[in-house]
Design a protein that fits this description.
It contains eight helices and ten strands. It is of the alpha/beta class and 309 residues long. It has two domains: 185 residues, Rossmann fold, CATH 3.40.50; 97 residues, Rossmann fold, CATH 3.40.50.1100. The strands form two sheets. It has a six-stranded mixed beta sheet with strand order 1-2-10-7-8-9. A four-stranded parallel beta sheet has the order 5-4-3-6, sandwiched between helices. Helix 1 packs across helix 5, helix 5 packs across helix 6 and helix 7 crosses helix 8. The N and C termini lie far apart (61 Å).
Length: 309
């Protein structure tokens, strides 16, 4: 039987990272202000962290720091670890991750499904404790590991400068007036803000943080009480908005029940903040196009009780 010629196919899983859709959040708009969000759960690893994880791994390979036999080691609150584990499964690298023991059961199970080795750290120490444990492990045998250190690696924010920012500009036709994003490693906010300001200087960029040190916004940092990432620039944001955990929980439920969007808590916090920006612009009688980020989907958080309220 003669061979059948197939059309050119995009068959590489990793080539599917990026180019996520920009969705309008109807309930967040106010008057002549529209709110849109990058639906990052369309990435193959399910979150915005696929972008920097791939960029840091590629940089490691190109520099020779990551090669056959090395173990990728880093700390994570979950999503970057999932992205590392997925990408390394494709590329054939072992993965060892430090994360707080209170990371959702769904995240831990996904990581194990991809074959990652987990080092669970005390819940009370949060992501800072996972980071310190990771640093100790690396210092004990640096030749065994490739330690991308997502909190300090410029390749983190550069991924968003190179991909997320240009996508937002293209998808909005250069009409974005405000960008809103929560701070964790700060890679998303830093990279997108730098790109938008380079291409569109009038844009206002607003960071989002938990309102208190003890919070339920997994993957985000309350900067005044946390180890600040080396890539964090406190002077980059035009403004910072503080979001309460309960407000984010309420928004997560609202998005699922009125918009059909099942998203994670940090994504919901972003929409809370974007809604505030839209309300303020509307009160002033102004128009605007506000863009935020749906960092991940809600499937990793379904064991949380707030969904039932």
């Amino acid at each position: 039987m003669p061979a059948v010629a197939l059309p050119a196919l995009q068959s590489d899983l990793l080539s599917r990272i990026g180019n996520t859709p920009l969705l309008e959040i109807g309930a967040a708009g106010r008057g002549d202000v529209r709110v849109f969000a990058k639906a990052e759960f369309f990435n193959p690893g399910g979150s915005v962290k696929d972008r920097p994880a791939l960029n840091m791994i590629r940089e490691g390979e190109e520099s020779g720091k990551l090669r056959a036999g090395k173990v990728l080691l880093d700390s994570t609150s979950g999503n970057t670890g999932i992205a590392y584990a997925m990408i390394c499964a494709v590329k054939g690298y072992a993965v060892k991750l430090c994360l707080p023991e209170n990371a959702s059961p769904e995240r831990q199970q996904i990581l194990r499904a991809y074959g990652a080795e987990l080092v669970l750290t005390p819940a009370g120490e949060g992501s800072d404790g996972a980071q310190r444990t990771c640093q100790r492990i690396y210092a004990s045998d640096p030749k065994a590991y490739f330690y991308p250190d997502q909190y300090s690696n410029p390749a983190n924010w550069q991924a968003h400068f190179q991909t997320t920012g240009p996508e937002i500009l293209e998808q909005t036709g250069g009409r974005v007036t405000h960008f809103v994003a929560a701070l964790g490693t700060t890679g998303t906010f830093t990279g997108v803000t730098k790109r938008l300001r380079h291409e569109l200087p009038p844009v206002r960029c607003i960071s989002v943080q938990p309102a208190s040190p003890l919070h339920g916004l997994e993957g985000t940092k309350h900067m005044p009480s946390s180890m600040q990432p080396a890539i964090y620039d406190p002077n980059l944001a035009d403004e910072n908005l503080w979001v309460e955990t309960e407000d984010a929980y309420q928004m997560a439920r609202q998005l699922a029940r009125t918009e059909g969007l099942l998203v994670g808590v940090s994504a919901a916090a972003n929409v809370v903040a974007a809604t505030r920006v839209a309300e303020e612009l509307s009160k002033e009688g102004r128009s605007g196009l506000v863009v935020t980020v749906l960092c991940d989907g809600g499937q990793k958080y379904l064991s949380e009780s707030f969904w039932n309220d």
